[in-house]
Amino acid sequence: MSARKSLIRRPLRKGKISTKEKPVVEEKRKILSIVGIGASAGGLKAFEQFFANVPADSGMAFVLVPHLDPSHVSMLPDLLKKYTKMPVVQAEDGMKVRGDSVHVIPPNTEMVIMNGTLLLKILKEPRGLRLPIDTFFRSLAEDQKNKAVCVILSGNGTDGTLGLKAIKAELGMAMAQDPSSAEYESMPRSAIETGMVDYILTPDRMGAQLVTYVKQLVSRGAGEKGPTVRGVPEALPKIFQLLRSRTGHDFSFYKKNTICRRIERRMSVHQIERLPDYVTYLERSPEEVTVLFKEILIGVTNFFRDPQAFEALAESLKSALAAKPKDYSLRVWVPGCSSGEEVYSIAIILRECMDKLKKNLKVQIFGTDIDSDAIDAARAALYPASIVAGLSADRLKHFFVREGSGYRIKKEIREMAIFAKQDVLKDPPFTRLDLVSCRNLLIYLESELQKKLLPLFHYALKPDGILFLGTSESVNGFTDLFSLADKKWKLFRRRSDSAISELVQFNAAPSLLEGSHPVTGIPAKPIRESAVSENAQKFLVDNYAPPCVFIDGNGEVIYTHGRTGKYLELAPGRANLNVLEMAREGIRHELAAAVRKVKLQKRTVSLGGLQVKTNGGSQEITLTVKPVRGTEETGELLVVVFEDTAPKQLKLGKVRAAFAPKATQRISHLEQELRHSQEHLRTTIEELETSNEELKSSNEELQSTNEELQSTNEEMETSKEELQSLNEELVTVNAELQGKIEDLSRANDDMKNLFDSTQIGTIFLDNQLRIKRFTSEATKIINLIPSDIGRPISHIVSRLEDDTLSLEAQQVIESLVPKEKPVRSKEGRWYLSRIVPYRTLDNVIDGVVMTFTDITEQKRVESVIDARNLAEGMVETVREPLVALDGKFQVMAANSSFCSLFSTSRNAMVGQSLFDLGNGEWNIPKLRELLEKILPENSQIENFVVEHDFPKIGRKQITIDARRIYREDVGTEAILLAFKENIGERSET
User: Fold this and answer.
1) What is the pTM of this model?
2) Burial label, 667 (beta-carbon count in 10 A; 0-12, 13-18, 19+)
3) In angstroms, rounded to a whole number, what is the distance separating the alpha carbons of residues 719 and 711?
4) Conformational region of residue 562, where left means phi above 0, alpha means psi within -120 to 50, and beta covers everything else
């Protein structure tokens, strides 16, 4: 079923619902929540423990996303069926998720869910870094919103972490296995370190907690936008006060629905029914206040979210950068930056644009957020390996470095970003910005607050600066401040022709002044006083401050004041603004020493009486170097102040003429020593500079080597990832095979006990008629011992009278026609021999199976029946009265002549003892003696005369002929009696 088809909803007809539609309606009512479960190495054991403790009628649907070997058929569904009564099926493309069922992702596929339907995509590359758990969790969050539940079990790597964040952003629930109970703890530990996991449990305890949570969710009537608990809005002021006292941040201007949904989700997690009880819990648990604060700030963020939007931004930045001079400093502000993905995405785009334009501008990107933990994570710039899902291979290679189990942003990109904790609602904004990227922050704020922030962004931007908003945000009501640059991807430009004055723009900016409102900004009067103060300071500096320069820690000149040409001059060669290179003769070495001392001791250093040489003369000055606290963007600064301490000296020749000859001689001597010292110092400096150049060259070589090693390391990391992925797949396959082996072992035991209990001799032969295995019952027919396995059946001596088993087995293999016949052992026992082809599951003939069923008793019964049938046939054929008896003298048959002669019926006789017939009328002593004594000694007796009074026919004299019939093959016997009436003859007795 396609995703488009799943969106079509057929109108229900009035009246009864057809039988085809009923299950669909019932199915939709049945699913209370869809649970996505991710695992990797060691996941099979966790799955077994989990499902062994989940009721089969929970109303939930489970979707399993383990890391599977793409080239191996998964046995996971078959293995899990033993641990749950729910149906376990392998997912298929277009399969509708069913309640109280388990769905398992197939190997070598990527799976998402849309409108409750599973959609599969076959992966082209069989190997590589795969993130199927993140992919499914993200689609689950988007499809199921707050009803989504994710569970992360044992496994290596960080797959599932980003997907968990997406589910939490939609108010879903997250569980992770307790790392101490996991065979491989990397995946659950990575999830726990996000601080967003609701429950950390062992797999056997997760089922009960899931059922409790879902019941709580259903009892609140969860919908797409979350549940609604009565009384939440009334309790918000108290909750806001607790949050403000704990965190220092006011959430009263955030959208109430968003806050309420967060509060209600925390109540579901703790199974708290009443809102007053939750407020009491907040008052008693400061940790819960912090958790609620973190949950309110949860937002969906990742690298290049909405890639097409960033492509549109890149085009706008590229055209803007093309018009900038080479020494331009580009400034960007990202309020609400969270963990920094958006900041670094913009930095990467700027780096790519500059590379295409072959420009190397100075870039400063300010990322701010009120969450200090998020700022720390952004500064660390270390992200889980699962970020590769949103990055191209080229960007991953050029801007990231593999570190441990994650990726770190390269230094050249990190140096563009500056992160700081800032509340955009009350702290001063950054100014003179070229770009403000505020994506998906305004949607959480009330419209009143949005109206305050948009003028603030207008104030912070330069003319024609870019405002980058989220796809659900706009500048409605402020079209006079911003012009539309891209309607679809919400790119706007600051209008320079706005009627709002600079003063009004500054009023729109938040302030930190005591008593100012966090939204309304600074009052007009303090702004005017500030403007006067700035003008006054500028006047005093320009007219009364001595010449000075501001330098950074490397000595580079940042800012100059006054006439500094007397003390500084550009050095020959390439332009260099390093103050140590620009210092004139007489203060160069002293200035270098003072700068070093200030940097080390962090205190002011002042040197007086220095002679700086000017054009043909010198000037005595006092040199002062002071540390100055800079900003986050400038870092620590130093100020160098030059003060003249005496009038300009006379030229050197006139000074010498004024001194006495001795003084002149002394001065000449000192000057000569000074020249020697200066020459020696110059030589030392040159040697030092040469050594420095050599060190620079060595450093460049080391950097080149380091880059090569880094490239090699990246290749090794890539190989390591592939090996790790392969290892996880092999661990999973091994666990499945281990489970299958256990199943086969149990099946083998069951088969053995079955064969032993049925007492059927069975022998398995291969295509060469070699023995593969046999049962113990078969040893009674063929002399087999365990060491005979592998030997041809023809080499083994059997106990059968007619041994043609080998020949018949060969005929079955050739013709594939089963053979069946009775055979007799030398001990006289009968067996039914069956020889059938041995077929594998793939319908391949792999030998034959011989079975021997003991039918000795059956043969005896058949012989008795045969003898009886024979006797009956013979007796009925003869006209003389005849009776057939068995070995116990019971009547087997009697012919009609006998019945007629002795006035009886066949039914009254058959099965009865001869001596009991007719109330004992045949209990004749001579007849009994004949049967019991005489006949056993003689198999045949003729003309045995008996005379007896019969109640019905009177006294009769009869002649009896008797014959004993014995079948040696089955050990049965019969007695045939023939009667003849002697008419007119009577004994004297």
Assistant:
1) 0.49
2) middle
3) 12
4) left
390-402: per-residue pLDDT in tens? 788 888 888 998 8
Q: Among 638, 636, 640, which residue's Cα sits nearest to residue 547?
A: 640
What 3-state class would DSSP assign to 819?
strand
pLDDT digits (tens, 9 = 90+) for 414-455: 889 999 888 887 777 888 899 999 887 887 787 777 878 888
Burial of 627 (0-12, 13-18, 19+ CB in 10 A): middle
For 431, how many CA atoms within 13 A lie in the half-sphere containing its CB? 9
Regarding whether 844 and 879 lie in a shared domain, the answer is no
**C-alpha–C-alpha distance, residues 429 and 521, integer Å:** 11
- 658 belongs to a structural domain: no
In whole angstroms, give the CA distance from residue 192 to residue 198: 9
Any domain includes 182: yes
Looking at the chain, how many residues does it have?
A: 989
Q: Is residue 200 part of a domain?
A: yes
For residues 325 and 313, give the distance between their C-alpha atoms in angstroms, rounded to a whole number: 20
How many structural domains is the chain composed of?
Answer: 6
CATH number at residue 945: 3.30.450.20
pLDDT in tens, 73-120: 778 888 888 889 899 999 998 899 998 999 999 988 889 999 889 999
Location of structure tokens 């009263």: 252
My answer on whether 350 and 290 are in the same domain is: no
Helix, strand or coil, per DSSP, at residue 318:
helix
Question: What 3-state DSSP class applies to 798?
Answer: strand
Q: What is the mean pLDDT of the chain?
A: 78
Contact 150, 175 (CB under 8 A): yes
The dihedrals phi and psi of 878, each to the nearest 5 degrees, come to -75, 140
Mean pLDDT of 264-276: 78
Predicted confidence at residue 797, as pLDDT, reads: 82
Structural domain range at position 644: 545-649
Residue 703 lies in a domain: no
DSSP per-residue codes, 621-674: EEEEEEEE---TTT-SEEEEEEEE-SPPPPPHHHHHHHS-HHHHHHHHHHHHHH
Whether residues 331 and 415 share a domain: the answer is yes
Q: How confident is the model at residue 718 (pLDDT cuts 50, 70, 90)?
A: low
Q: What is the pLDDT of residue 684?
A: 79
Bridge partners of 438, per DSSP, are: 469
Domain match, 765 and 870 both = no
> Do 330 and 418 belong to one domain?
yes
276 and 184 in a common domain: no
**Amino acid (one-letter) located at 627:** P
637 Cβ partners below 8 Å, 6+ apart? 550, 551, 552, 558, 627, 628, 629, 630
Residue 966 has a CB neighbour count (10 Å cut-off) of 12
Quickly state the pLDDT bin for 646 (edges 50, 70, 90): low
Tokens, residue 976: 């045939």
What is the residue type of 309? A
**In this structure, what DSSP letter does residue 174 have?**
E
From the list 319, 322, 310, 402, the residue with the least C-alpha distance to 361 is 322
Joined together, the tokens standing for residue 382 give: 């270390």
With a cut of 60, say whether residue 71 has pLDDT above it. Answer: yes
